[in-house]
Amino acid sequence: MKFSLSIIGLLPLVSLINATTIDPEVVAARKNDVYLKQYQDNIMKTLRARKPTAKCTERTLIRRKEWSRLSKSEKLAYVAATKCLAAKPNQLSRALVPGVRNRYDDFTAVHLANTPYVHFNGNFLAFHRHYVHLYEQALRNECGYKGTQPYWDWSISYQDVRTHPIFDGSAASLGGNGAYEPDRENVVVELAPGIFQSHPPATGGGCVTKGPFTPSTWSVNLGPIGYNVSWDPIGPDGGFGYNPRCLRRDFSPIYSKDSRPSNVTALLEVDSLAALSFKFDAEPGAVHGAGHFQVGGIELCTYASPSDPIFWAHHAMIDRIWTVWQHLGNTSVIATKQNSVWGTGTNGNNPPSAPVTLDSTINFDVLDQPRAIRELVSTIDGPFCYMYE
Question: For 128-183, what is each residue's pLDDT tens digit?
């Protein structure tokens, strides 16, 4: 099924698009804002038509904000909740995953175990939507967090990842870069079975030195699996064993260029879920990979990437793009988009697996019961009741 976007709401941009003096990325950013407003209007229209007794209404809706729009106290509360989760005991048995040491590790371990079934396939978007939601709920229900999961809009800082406030290295941030380490080898990552990508060293490489997640306050305990380098060899027990080490980062302005506003626009304007998924992941310079790659360190490991707290804000941004795309169009188009599926249930369909359907289930292990994809396709239905600002 293919969809077309209405140009209503985009007419004010015509003069900008035709103006040679305007940066095309500025034009794209403004177009993205128009699409965001259309999405928000359609969400509110749906909610206002519901009965007051519905599970998700305008009154019960929560709103996720971009990191830079949070107040200092909101940022500090999010950081505190993240560290609170890492101070709570694990619920996942060490007989299953020997390396887990805390509740935060439970989340990383679930990603480790499910990576072959939730990347480069038809489960990717639905799994990560619910996975981030479960993390958000753990922060709220287990650590008393009153806010919502913030997202990291990397299109704001596409020219240089180091300029985004989320990485300013203050106590009210998610930390800064890793210490610079010269003479490091490339990191060769297996993205999918038999598909490898080489990442050159960038501006850091060592342990994070500023902010709330320095070696004295944060430990990465699981992985890696997806790469094997001298400074971070594959962990014991195939990456599932206890492997305590610092959080490393290696900010790359080269990869941040791939998260430019025009790449977001291109995603929002595709005409099918298959095309959206391809642009997210498979084409060169895809934004999903770019978000991980521009941070570097453990973010280069597909399996253990949740070990870095930036993971959640990055995947909230991925989810934001998906839900905005889902809500562009008339009522019929929106319904069709939300009920669209594509692909199979294994990474790159290797090994070959059955096509994904709305009734296909995704496992969340200790975090939640298995969920059918049809439960996860709308952020205002099923277990969800949130939207993005």
Answer: 999 999 999 999 999 999 999 999 999 999 999 999 999 999 999 999 999 999 99
Helices 310-326 and 261-268, packing angle to 10 deg: 40
The one-letter amino acid code at 178 reads: G
Task: Tell me whether strands 62-64 and 386-388 are parallel, antiparallel or unpaired.
Answer: parallel
Do residues 224 and 303 lie in contact, with contact meaning Cβ atoms separated by under 8 Å?
A: yes
> At CA 309, angle to CA 139 and CA 314, rounded to 5?
100
Whole-model pTM? Answer: 0.94
Q: Which amino acid is at 79?
A: V
CA gap 86, 60 in Å, rounded: 28
Angle at 95 between CA 90 and CA 96, to 5 degrees: 80
What is the DSSP pairing of strand 371-372 with strand 62-64?
unpaired
Cβ atoms of 109 and 346 within 8 Å: the answer is no
Among 3.40.630.10, 1.10.1280.10, 3.40.50.300, 3.40.50.170, what is the CATH number of 11-388? 1.10.1280.10
- Which candidate, 30, 31, 153, 127, places its Cα nearest to that of 356? 127
Pairing of strands 62-64, 195-199: unpaired
E strands, the chain, in order: 62-64, 178-180, 187-192, 195-199, 205-208, 361-362, 371-372, 386-388
Two structure tokens written together for 386: 């949130």
Hey, where are the domains in the chain?
11-388
Query: What does the pLDDT look like over 236-272, one tens digit per residue?
Result: 999 999 999 999 999 999 999 999 999 999 999 999 9
* Whether the Cβ atoms of residue 312 and residue 28 lie closer than 8 Å to each other: no
Contact 190, 348 (CB under 8 A): no
Q: Which tokens belong to 100?
A: 């887990």
